[in-house]
């Protein structure tokens, strides 16, 4: 890793741990934190550090620790020597992100390459390993490929994880579709996840400025859990931003109906009064 095109590499080190003193902290951190970084050693692994000339958050030079191994040849998603090659490093020829022998993904791939019977549970496990490592694109492709091979007793769990992979690649409609499939197969286990799912999708649309879609999925979340005051509060603010003042007032009133002693009750009363007034003024204008 380099920054501003300037870096220097320390002589190869004979230790695999690094002590990072708390000499400064970024603007978004509340306090300094000392860190002890431990890199697991492996066969053929070279551990080193790179010094950066600057950082976007703190002044002065900083250091990045890394581990590097040289392999004879290979391609992503295969084993080369004692390493599982996860993916190619963008912009660098014949350079891969890799996992050591002790990793779960290495062991699973070794079992497959050694000729074990082509079993759905092994491929399901491999897809989950990629999912847990936040390699969403690879996980999504794996889940999609094995969907028709998953036995009935594992379908609910499969669709739950498949949904997570879909969310990770930005396929929000598919995310909710697969979650619905999981719920239909095992309602007791997965029904409770639906509210959070609607909120996650809503927040994604909110971050991209799609207020109409943000409101759409907040409405779905409220419909799934109508007794949750915090959802009505959030939806009220969204309606206010969209200048739907009457609907905003209704949501805020619902908050007070559900929680008369709500921490923001005085603020909400003021907002309700203001929204009712804005609604009345709007009607006068249209009349």
Q: Explain this structure to me?
A:
This protein has 287 residues and is of the alpha+beta class. The protein is 50% helix and 14% strand. It has eleven helices and eight strands. It has a three-stranded antiparallel beta sheet with strand order 1-4-5, with no helix packed on it. It has a three-stranded antiparallel beta sheet with strand order 6-7-8, covered by helices on one side. A hairpin with a 7-residue loop joins strand 7 and strand 8 (96-99). Helix 5 runs antiparallel to helix 7 and helix 8 (211-224) packs antiparallel against helix 9. The radius of gyration is 26 Å and the shape is elongated.
Gist?
The chain has 287 residues and is of the alpha+beta class. It has helices spanning 104-113, 120-132, 136-146, 155-168, 172-185, 187-190, 194-207, 211-224, 229-241, 245-258, 265-286, and strands at residues 7-9, 17-20, 35-38, 45-52, 62-69, 78-80, 83-88, 96-99. α2 (120-132) runs antiparallel to α3 (136-146), α4 (155-168) packs antiparallel against α5 (172-185) and α10 runs antiparallel to α11.
Key terms for this structure?
287 residues, alpha+beta, three-stranded antiparallel beta sheet, 11 helices, disordered N terminus
Q: What layout of secondary structure does this protein have?
A:
Elements: E1 7-9, E2 17-20, E3 35-38, E4 45-52, E5 62-69, E6 78-80, E7 83-88, E8 96-99, H1 104-113, H2 120-132, H3 136-146, H4 155-168, H5 172-185, H6 187-190, H7 194-207, H8 211-224, H9 229-241, H10 245-258, H11 265-286
Antiparallel strand pairs: 1-4, 2-3, 4-5, 6-7, 7-8
């Amino acid at each position: 890793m380099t920054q501003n095109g300037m870096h220097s590499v320390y002589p190869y080190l004979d230790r695999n741990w690094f002590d990072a003193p708390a000499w400064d902290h970024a603007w978004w951190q509340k306090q300094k934190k000392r860190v002890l970084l431990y890199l697991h050693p492996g066969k053929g692994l070279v551990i080193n550090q790179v010094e950066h000339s600057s950082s976007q958050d703190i002044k002065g030079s900083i250091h990045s620790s890394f581990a590097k191994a040289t392999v004879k040849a290979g391609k992503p998603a295969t084993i080369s020597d004692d390493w599982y090659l996860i993916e190619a490093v963008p912009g660098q020829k014949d350079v891969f992100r890799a996992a050591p022998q002790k990793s779960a993904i290495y062991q699973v791939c070794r079992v497959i390459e050694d000729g074990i019977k082509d079993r759905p549970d092994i491929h399901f496990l491999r897809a989950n390993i990629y999912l847990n490592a936040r390699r969403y694109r690879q996980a999504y492709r794996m889940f999609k490929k094995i969907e028709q091979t998953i036995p009935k007793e594992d379908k609910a769990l499969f669709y739950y994880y498949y949904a997570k992979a879909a969310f990770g690649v930005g396929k929000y409609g598919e995310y909710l579709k697969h979650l619905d499939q999981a719920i239909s197969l095992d309602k007791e286990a997965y029904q409770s996840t639906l509210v959070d799912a609607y909120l996650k999708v809503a927040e994604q649309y909110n971050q991209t400025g799609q207020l109409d879609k943000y409101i759409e999925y907040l409405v779905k979340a409220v419909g799934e859990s109508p007794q949750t005051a915090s959802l009505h509060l959030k939806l009220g603010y969204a309606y206010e931003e969209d200048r739907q003042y009457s609907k905003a007032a209704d949501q805020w009133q619902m908050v007070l109906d559900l929680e008369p002693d709500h921490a923001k009750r005085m603020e909400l009363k003021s907002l309700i009064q203001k929204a009712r007034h804005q609604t009345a003024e709007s009607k006068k204008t249209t009349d």
